[in-house]
Amino acid sequence: MQSANMLLRKIVRSSVLPFAAQYGMKKDLFPLSRMLSLSLCLKQDKSCEPSEKLDLDEWKKVMKSGLQEEVSETVSEPEELSSLAAARQTLEMWRLAGRAVPDNISEEQLKTFMECPSKSAKKKYLKYLHIRELHKKSDKRKMDEKRERRLEAQDQASNTDETKKNSFVFLSSSAMDKAYHWRAAQSMIFGQPLVFDMSYEKEMSVREVTNTVRQLVLSESCNRRAVDPFHIHFCNLKDDSLYHREFIKHYKEAWGKLLITVTDQCYTEIFPKDKLIYLTADSPKVMKKFDHDKIYIVGSMVDKSIKTGVSLARAKRLGLETAALPLEKYLLWNTGAKNLTLDQMMHILLTLKDTADWRKALEFVPKRKYCGFVNKPVKELKKTLDLINTLRLGKRREQVENQFAKNHPKK
């Protein structure tokens, strides 16, 4: 009887178990094995005593353990693949249903999609991927169109002989950059100095310092492209300060190659005091003309809250001469403060240096801050002022008229 049981176990393990592992037949296997064991027992010995019966429960446990070991090896591996395939089928169904689904999705994006906690989150994630894919396609289409237009322009230029007959020489951007660098290098030797005071970091927030550095970058670019540029000095600029970190963030490796002077010294230690003029909107003295022998100082400060008197107080402590731009003399001032951005100041000073014309220089003042130039007839200025009072000011009309009379007493 024991030899029959051993033989039956070998037959089941060699033939039935691989068949069950291949086709997933777990539940129907044990009734078949029970029938086989009972039939063998009846054929060999029909008069089996009850004490010699086969323990089917123990045999079932042995069979289950063998099945779990063999089937787990074949089933556990493709579980992840089957889930990814099911997710892809779900995406195809949603695409056929007309939902916003991307055309191409990677395995990482698919796993992120499967990890979304809810159906609405999955929809939002797929919509985000779909919109990003549309933006990429649009950018690629624009780049292709731009490339085609450039190739067409090159073909047209090659077909015509205008370039051979033209006496003007085409200058590339690299050649222009070399010319600009040469001018900046000459300004460091022969140019008029222009100082930016970098000692206002404590009076500003991080956002205001960032805006200041952006305006200084624009100022340096404008100065480098000028016909007769200034020799720019960044004074009171400490290493590893917030100003310094923002400059490195903008310029990166080019920061050490700029043709400007950067120092942590004060301008009073570099230049004589009698040549320094601090430009501030709070100064009581109005600037009449541009002096090529003086050294002008501009405070590197952008204040959203308009802190009045900060730069004027600093100039007084250092015993320096101050001056303000004659905005009220040449412009019919309307609204807002008389503070200008640093790049606007650079444009105005460069224009004054080249032309000495206040009208051309003050054209860089934003148009929203003034109504026009004062050299117009008084009647036209009065009409403009009345129209502004009627449309915008309302009850403040008398106050503005009085202010206009104070600013222009002779006219």
Instruction: Write down the CATH class of the domain at 189-369.
Output: Alpha Beta
Please provide the ordered H/E string of secondary-structure elements: HHHHHHHHEHEHEHEEHEHEHHEHH
Which structural class should the secondary elements be placed in?
Answer: alpha/beta
Q: Describe the global form.
A: elongated
What is the CATH topology classification name of the domain at 189-369? Alpha/beta knot
Distance between the termini: 132 Å
Taking all Cα atoms into account, the compactness measure Rg is 43 Å
Q: Describe the biggest sheet? A: 6 strands, parallel
Strand percent estimate = 5-15%
Report strand order across the widest sheet.
Answer: 3-2-1-5-4-6
Q: Which segments are poorly predicted (pLDDT under 50) over 5 or more consecutive residues?
A: 19-52, 69-77
Q: If classified by CATH, what would the architecture of the domain at 189-369 be?
A: 3-Layer(aba) Sandwich
Enzyme class: transferase
Keywords: Coiled coil, Methyltransferase, Mitochondrion, S-adenosyl-L-methionine, Transferase, Transit peptide, tRNA processing
Protein name: tRNA methyltransferase 10 homolog C
Organism: Pycnonotus jocosus (Red-whiskered bulbul)
